[in-house]
Amino acid sequence: MLRILADGQIHSAKQLINQLALSSIAELELAISTLFDLGIKFYSPRADTYQLISTLELLDRSCILAALPVNNQQRLALLEIHSVLDSTNQYVLAQQHQVVPYVCLAEYQTAGRGRQGRQWISPYGSGLCLSIKQYYETINKSLTGLNIALAVTVVRVLSLIGATEVGLKWPNDILWRGHKLAGLLLETRYKKGCEIVIGIGINVKSPPISKNTITQPWVDLYTILGQPISRNVLAAMLIDHCLQTLIIYPQVGLTAFLDDWHNFDLSYGQTVTLSKQAEVITGTAWGIDDEEGSLLLQVGNEKRRFVCGEVSLRL
Ligand code: BTN
User: Per residue in 18-39, pLDDT tens?
Assistant: First the structure.
């Protein structure tokens, strides 16, 4: 039904019942209320008609594959698109197979996970919720560094589509003028080798969300770009560039990412506050360590380093 309504045109109940081969109006109403529960908003311009509040570009596997360069079309072992999942990271981690690189997207997550136990909220079809799983037999480079390399990769993609003034708050918060645009959540599982799941969430075109639901100031790409961007094309670009990074990083470490980190770093030279368990530390941020990607902080006369996972940073 959503595929029919996605064009943003007015559809009559009768037409929907016919097209979907439903047996009764009650079945249609059930479908409508299911969509409503997912946060999908309708007008009813006339009696017994339905129209989405705005057009919706649903994720489409063949569009994403077609937009991928041939080398990564061939490299990608599995691409799944789901309508609703609890969390794409959770789902991908739960799969026992080791068919990698494995990419999974969902239109909506009922329990989207953010960093440090926070939630990631993205209304149905309004953003990208994407997880990529990779497997390394051995990886002798730091995982904080991989986090950094992938965050740089995502900002590079956002720059390619014309989003300016997008920067990074260590380790991988993606902000525009102080508003949250995107984030990454890297999760790992050690089983013989190391399974890595990179979850990427990006606000693409979000309906108004109540301040009680998301307390942090946020922004979407539509606002930044002033025009729509295809979620399928953006998904393909992210997959393409992240797959590249997953190959390059274990070979060269952070060297290929340091310059851009420095370009995108929002905290360089700023006074920042770190929370590390019960401790609150204030200092001046001086970028990252070249090898590990740990945060370099001047606290009084002392230079300290912090690896991600243990701290949260406030600008
Ligand atoms: C953050 O900034 O807190 C990280 C947000 C990461 C959200 C993405 S959405 C896709 C993937 N699945 C999840 O449950 N979380 C990540």
Answer: 999 999 999 999 999 999 888 8
Check residue 210 and give its pLDDT: 63
List CB contacts of 221: < 8 A, sequence separation 6 or more: 158, 161, 163, 181, 202, 203, 204, 205, 229, 234
The residues with which 50 forms a beta bridge, in sequence order, are: 11
Q: Is the CB of 115 within 6 Å of ligand 1?
A: yes
Phi and psi (nearest 5°) for 111? -140, 55
Q: Does the CB atom of residue 127 touch ligand 1 within 6 A?
A: no
Assess whether 115 carries a catalytic annotation. Answer: yes
